[in-house]
């Protein structure tokens, strides 16, 4: 009887161990090869999409529908995700054995819709540093009453069903020739007109008759704002490796952290080389082409978690959200030396995409510079395209191609 129990125990142990071993192989991507009669190592591709239910093609062959996980032999694959009514997502992926590769395809409408957000005209729209608000000028005209003209603020916070907060006026008057500058905390605006400089509290309306000229304090205010910005910036870059922190501080002219602060978008001011292997390699990290040798006036994205640097675009461009208080401004939140640029880049709220606006079109691309999708091709006043925090729309400045009509802000529905 004792021998039988021992035999049963050994059989059970062997069976359990075998099952556990097979399950572990399966989880690591191994699959049984019928021809070779053995388990062969594969990689696993985890593919998701927003919205889901999209068709997944690998090297032109239909594989499955999102969201899904499936094995692939080690190698290079062209992956296409498509869904009716949406632009297709595609990327070349390198699959490695026993490594899980994860991708999320954000799909955007192939026929986006436009709806007006302002109706009395909008001039010089400018986003706050965190892109949660847009300030703009409503010009004086025969059609606009005195109750409409002035400086206005619109909040574009996360409201998936639309804007429940109406734009509000901060101050009145004919401000078409004025300039303004956001404070670092987006609670104040420094307005400059021919009559002087005025610090406006955005929580209330200040009529022009009650505005106080602080021209004599303007330089001091800008110095204080610059110190506040630098303090925040140093806190952010202090989390980087020393070699990278030094490059970001000395060799960049504009830097914008992604909303989750796992990546940074920057324009180089000079040449430098980002050292290799600043962190231990991570399994499943991006296999897209890197560019660790940065050059002046080129714009890049650095992935902090994976230690990978990607080239995005060349030549001067406005990075929305970057404010340089060291130099004189003639606009709201633009890079001063690029104030007249007709191109801009913004982080999309996913922290994995960039919004690129230029004359005649708006592109959303993956953070590594791949999968560039034209989400809008039409009339708008470049580079004024700003992402709303609801992930489903952009705010653009356009007159819909009618030169006799004043420009207004429109919501472009892309999801």
UniProtKB/TrEMBL annotation:
Keyword Hydrolase listed: no
InterPro entries, per database record: 6-blade_b-propeller_TolB-like, PEGA
Record key words, sorted: Membrane, Transmembrane, Transmembrane helix
Gene3D superfamilies the record matches: TolB, C-terminal domain
Spans traversing the lipid bilayer: 6-27
One Pfam family, short name: PEGA
Official protein name in the record: PEGA domain-containing protein
């Amino acid at each position: 009887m004792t021998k039988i129990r021992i035999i049963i125990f050994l059989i059970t142990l062997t069976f359990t161990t075998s099952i556990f071993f097979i399950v572990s192989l399966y989880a690591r991507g191994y699959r049984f090869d019928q021809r070779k009669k053995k388990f062969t190592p594969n990689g696993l591709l985890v593919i998701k999409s927003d919205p889901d239910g999209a068709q997944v093609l690998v090297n032109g062959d239909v594989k499955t529908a999102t969201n899904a996980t499936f094995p692939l032999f080690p190698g290079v694959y062209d992956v296409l995700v498509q869904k009716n009514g949406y632009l297709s997502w595609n990327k070349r992926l390198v699959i490695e054995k026993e490594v899980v590769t994860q991708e999320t395809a954000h799909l955007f409408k192939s026929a986006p819709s436009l709806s007006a957000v302002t109706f009395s005209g909008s001039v010089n729209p400018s986003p706050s540093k965190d892109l949660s608000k847009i300030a703009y000028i409503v010009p004086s005209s025969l059609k606009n009453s005195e109750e409409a003209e002035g400086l206005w603020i619109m909040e574009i916070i996360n409201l998936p069903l639309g804007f429940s907060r109406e734009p509000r006026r901060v101050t009145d008057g004919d401000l078409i020739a004025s300039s303004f500058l956001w404070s670092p905390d987006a609670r104040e605006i420094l307005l400059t007109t021919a009559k002087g400089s005025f610090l406006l509290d955005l929580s209330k309306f200040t009529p022009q008759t009650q505005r106080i000229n602080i021209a004599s304090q303007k330089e001091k205010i800008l110095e204080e704002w610059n110190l506040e910005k630098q303090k925040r910036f140093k806190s952010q870059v202090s989390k980087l490796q020393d070699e990278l922190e030094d490059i970001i501080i000395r060799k960049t002219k504009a830097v914008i952290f992604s909303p989750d602060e796992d990546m940074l978008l920057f324009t180089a001011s000079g040449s430098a080389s980002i050292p290799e292997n600043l962190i231990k390699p991570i399994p499943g990290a991006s296999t897209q082409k890197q560019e660790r040798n940065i050059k002046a006036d080129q714009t890049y994205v650095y992935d902090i978690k994976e230690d990978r640097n990607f080239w995005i675009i060349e030549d001067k461009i406005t990075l929305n959200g970057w404010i340089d208080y060291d130099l004189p401004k003639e606009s709201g939140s633009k890079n001063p030396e690029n104030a007249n640029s007709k191109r801009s880049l913004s982080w999309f709220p996913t922290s994995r995409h960039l919004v690129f606006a230029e004359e005649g079109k708006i592109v959303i691309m993956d953070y590594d510079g791949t999968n560039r999708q034209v989400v809008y091709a039409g009339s708008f006043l470049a580079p004024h395209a700003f992402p709303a925090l609801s992930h489903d729309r952009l705010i653009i400045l356009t007159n819909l191609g009618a030169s006799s009509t004043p420009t207004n802000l429109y919501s472009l529905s892309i999801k």
